[in-house]
Amino acid sequence: MKRVLLLGGTGDALAIARALPDAHVYSLAGLGRVPADLACAVRVGGFGGIDGLVRYLCDEKIALVVDATHPYAAQMSRHAHEACAIARVALWAVRRPAWQPQPGDDWREASDWRAIVERIAAFHRPLFTLGREPLAHLHEIPASQYWTIRCLDAHPGNARAKIVDARGPFDLDGERALFDAARIDVVISKNSGGRATEAKLAVARERGLPVVMLARPALPAADRIFDDAASARDALLQWLGQTHTSET
Fold first, then answer.
1. With 90 as the cut, is the pLDDT of residue 161 above it?
2. Which segments does the entry list as coiled coil (predicted)?
């Protein structure tokens, strides 16, 4: 039997997981909510590095791994690539295209946290949309700044930071309200691509605010690469020998 291991944690992965029958496995790192309405099995937690993933692939008789992790989950993508090569398992990947700057955008690329701090030194009310990373730096906030940090996890913050626990998709009106309430003067973002979190870029563009964009990591090759979840899902179901009716 052809068994699939879907590496997830993104909206793209969930869209694929909803089409998988019960013999297959949807794997999550453990952050965020675990979906309860899937027919496939859901596995939460790490594999124990490359060796652990190789053992899992062999023990569970996985014939295909679909990497639909976040574009910045580079370590998991590298582990999947190496483990599949060792176990001789096919590897597909969903790599949604990066956002591209539009007329009126003021994007300033940063390669790492240190570069981000340098880029925002002249600003006072940054909005961080990098996930959990800024939470490790709450004790480093300059006296001239007040941080707004949006991530999936609730966190108390401190006197110089407010944590907004929220999950996309985000719309223009909601982003405008957040920018107004927090008096945002610079946005810090990963270049995640997709529509779910793109509205913040449109609001920054409207207001002439700079966006410090964390550069995407290099990702390994795969046997097949898809730009979006729908095409990956359809190819996967064809590979499984099933039919699929698109939602209307």
1. yes
2. none
Three-class SS state of 187: strand
Q: What CATH number has the domain bearing residue 225?
A: 3.40.50.720
Strand order in the sheet with 25-28: 41-44, 25-28, 4-7, 64-67, 90-94, 224-226
The residue type of 173 is D
Q: Is residue 102 part of a domain?
A: no
195 with 234, same domain: the answer is no
Are 129 and 203 part of one and the same domain? yes
Q: What are phi and psi of 2, to 5 degrees?
A: -75, 115
The side-by-side arrangement of strands in the sheet containing 211-214 is: 107-110, 211-214, 186-190, 126-129, 147-151, 161-165
Q: How far apart are the first and last CA of the chain?
A: 31
CA dist 29 and 34 (Å) reads 10
> What's the domain range around 125?
107-214
Q: How far apart are CA 240 and CA 226, in angstroms?
A: 17
Q: Where residue 157 sits, what CATH number does that domain have?
A: 3.40.50
Task: Say if CB 17 and CB 38 are below 8 A apart.
Answer: yes
